[in-house]
Amino acid sequence: MLVSLVALSAFGIALTGVVAYAFISADVTSTVDAELRSRTEAFYALADGPDPATGLAWTDPTELVRAGVQNAAASETTSAVGFVAGEARFVPASANHLPLEDDPVFLEQAGDPELGEVNVVTIDTESADYRSVSIPVQGDDGATDAVFTVATDHGERMEELREIVGGYALAAVLALVLIAGVAWVAVGRLLVPIRLLDEAARDISESDLTRRIPIVGNDDLARLSETVNAMLERIERAFAAQRNLLDDAGHELRTPLAVMRTGLDLLEPRDSEQVEQTQAMMQDEVAMMSRLVDDLVVLAKADRPEFVAKSDFDLGPLTDAVVQRAKALSAHEWRLGERADCVVHGDAQRLQQAWMQLIANAVKFSDEHTPITIGSAVDGQWARLWVSDEGRGIAPEDHDRVLERFQRVGDDSEGAGLGLPIVSAIALAHGGRVELHSEVGQGSTFTMIVPVSVHGDGDGS
Q1: Residue range 2-161, CATH number
Q2: What is the pTM of this model?
Q3: What is the CB neighbour count within 10 angstroms for residue 90?
């Protein structure tokens, strides 16, 4: 990543330098050519005017070329030469002019121009790289008697640009070093959460899910670390719940298996009465184990999307059906406390299963012929399905515990302790929860709170 960043920066700086050099180089050449064309126009203006010495039109090409050279502004990079009969005869009087007369290769090419259009040409010699213009001056007989030449050391002009480019290159190298240093620090800090994430992922195993990623900074990687920590938290809870379920299930199954093994060990096949008793006992134990397995299967499916199949149904008829089924369970005094008449979006069969479990729980922990009230109501976006009894009640410290798996209240409680957890799982699968109001010796009221529709939201409070 660091190498790619530095390479990309180097490419950008180099591309900028190349493009800038190309544009400035073209501009320097364009400027030199414009100056040469300006000097050419000045010579033409001189030729079109009168001879200052006579006040008449120019008649002597040699004098015209001499006057043009004298009028040419010379410098260390620009000068002029006047040729007569192919010989360099006139140069500027300034001592600081470009010494074109000392470069024989230039004199040979510039002193013999081609007739026709006057253009800026390039003449390369060992001494310099010239851009020049040569203007032939013809006499009255039509022959070329003299040549006026002006030239600029284009290479010297470009040398100044090369010095600027050299300074740019040095600045670019220093900038790259600075970029590399800053990137080294920045990338190192950015990669800290990723390195910690990698180390945590390597250390996490099924036997140790407690490792968490330290949160560094407040950027996207920090939020990613928080998300991964939350995921690890959920995985840890899921594994812990799985282990607890297996441990509790093993404990619950161990008791009936021990009873069955003891019964078989003590069985006297020739005693028909004992055989019948053992058979009945084993049938009871098998029935209890089958129910335990069925309940465990229900709880194992509670986290799956297909655990509930939601559709719209009428809560009023469901309330009536639950009351009718409850009356067949025992000789309690069954009462209908309230009946909601509305459409609910949920799984009617699962809700009825949970409702009947609450009713069975009320029957178990209340005396026969005592009242048990069943009811349903709608409170805003939430439906409340409850069962209320006047039984033994539950102590406040046990309210949360009764909804946990394999938990029983009282030493004389029967069953595996999975009924109320199943109710809670069904309510949670609907996006709701279970509430408990109970006092010891006064009875208990269990309420399932579920959304009325698929669009319902809130906390059900």
Answers
A1: 3.30.450
A2: 0.46
A3: 21
